[in-house]
Amino acid sequence: MTTTHTAYETDLDLFATEVLLDPFPHYRTLRDLGPVVYLTEHDLYGLFRYDHVRSALVDWETFSSAQGIAMNPTANELSADSILSMDPPRQRTLRKVFDDALRPRYVRRVAGDIERLADELVADLLRRGEFDGVADFACKLPVDIVMDLIGFPRDEQRDNILKWALGAFDFMGPAGERQSSTFPDVQALMQYLVAEAKPDALLPDSFGRIVYAAADAGEITEGEALMTMSAYACAGLDTTIAGVASTLWLLASHPEQWRAVREDPELVPSAFLEGVRMESPLQFFSRVTTRDIDVAGVIIPAGARVVHSYGSANRDERHYTDPDRFDVRRNPADTVGFGFGVHTCPGRTLATMEAHALFGALARQAGAIDLTGEPTRTPNNITRGLDSLPVRVS
Ligand code: HEM
């Protein structure tokens, strides 16, 4: 006979500033508490171990996205037409639009541009010697190439899009001061998408044109088209910037690991995956259970909101040996940093291509990377990235 338990309770505030700034020791505590944790502060169930996060992501019929994946009702209502807030079969229809646009064959058309721009960028940064690893290195390809791919007009609004998108992620956290304070960013992003990034203002041959063509053909609704543009803006830019900046920070603070990559640039793909595993640009999303579900002997009742932490799963010592060690040879291809199951990231190929071009160019051209100051970061309810990363490259 199997015994079932109720979830292990904790009053830890997972979204408190100091926890968001350094979540990893807290994740370990939560993983050790039990397979399912109940977070009393926000009335959320939580999954923190690798196996359980991955199983929940695969079992979309039980862990549903259809009531939104944010942790407050307003954000979930606003994103009802987003692909992220859907289960199959509705999600599959929209997903086809993303997959068509982000198909590796299609994305490879711009691969030459990505490689060339990365080489030029790194040559320029080497001439400068000192630079900001976020603004000057990690942001460049998402702003110059990915915004072109999405089709956003080439104007000064591009820098604002990054800020609004970060605000939109913050707005997905549990109701509270940090979450509500970013509502103006959400409004500004939507206003921009409606009034400025209109279908006829988008660059030719862009993802945006594909999206609105699908709406014109009746394959998706106008609302879904708008939320698809929002998903591109939010999911496709700051995530990559965070992943690249975090990987650069890890390489700069582990000189022996960077030396290994320079000596063998074939390690670049593994090093980037390891950066995504260690720092997980997206730390959490949530689902709602459609039935009572037994997770390793603990019952989560039907109708519960369950937060799952990609960031914690990626550091689970039950799955990864010595998980807090940055090891460019680990090659953690099974990281849940890009999600898993039906919502697994359709932009993975594109993000990976950008990162490989940047770190490949750096490995070929640069010597040592030194930190010249403390990196800074702003806590965010969902994302984990850096604001600035002062470095010197020889
Ligand atoms: C290092 C970079 C990136 C990381 C770490 C990342 C991470 C993720 C994760 C964890 C999910 C799963 C969400 C869930 O489980 O509900 C996801 C979904 C998604 N990502 Fe990414 N992503 C990255 C880059 C991109 C790029 C470059 C694009 C597009 C240009 C993109 C577009 C999307 C979209 C549209 C979804 C939703 C898919 C669906 O709901 O079916 N991502 N991403």
Please give a structural write-up:
The chain has helices spanning 17-21, 24-33, 50-58, 73-78, 90-102, 104-108, 111-128, 133-138, 140-150, 157-170, 177-180, 183-195, 207-216, 222-235, 238-253, 255-263, 268-279, 310-313, 348-365, and strands spanning 8-10, 37-39, 44-47, 63-64, 130-132, 284-289, 293-295, 298-300, 305-309, 369-371, 390-393. The protein has 394 residues and is α+β, with helices and mostly antiparallel strands. The chain has one domain: Orthogonal Bundle (Cytochrome p450). The chain has a 6-stranded mixed sheet with strand order 1-2-3-9-6-4. Strands 5-11-10 form a 3-stranded antiparallel sheet. Strands 7-8 form a two-stranded antiparallel ribbon. A hairpin with a 4-residue loop joins strand 2 and strand 3. The relative contact order is 0.19. The mean pLDDT is 95. Protoporphyrin IX containing FE binds at residues 57, 69, 83-84, 91, 95, 98, 146, 231-232, 235-236, 239-240, 243, 276, 281-282, 285, 310, 337-339, 343, 345-347, 350-351.
